[in-house]
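Bumping with the actual sequence this time:
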Amino acid sequence: MSEFTTKALVILAWGRVQRVGFRRFAERLAFSSKISGYIENRRDGSVRIFAQGEAQRLDDFVEAIRNAPHPIVVVELETKNARVSPRIKHFQIKVGSMAMEMLEGFGSMATQFEGYGE
């Protein structure tokens, strides 16, 4: 990545963004968009993303995050410019404690079965 064509953002997302597969969605999207950085759940129920890449790809990434598929519901999205970090070469999910990650997985799985059998 060249510093001249690369930009970085800190993205904060609020809404139904935890326990619904949002981090996995963002990880797959980042991979296909050639975006590097990381995503992490925050204690207040929001999600923080550090993302960097070619400017147009990053803008497209933010728009896709804003319009994430069901069961994810992004109610508010805040972006702030950040400093590019050349040492970050890939996108990763920053994980929490084992208990929190298990709750995340069970919650994500449960949303896949919403309305099942109705």
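The tokens above came from a reply further down the thread. The two ends are 49 Å apart (CA to CA).
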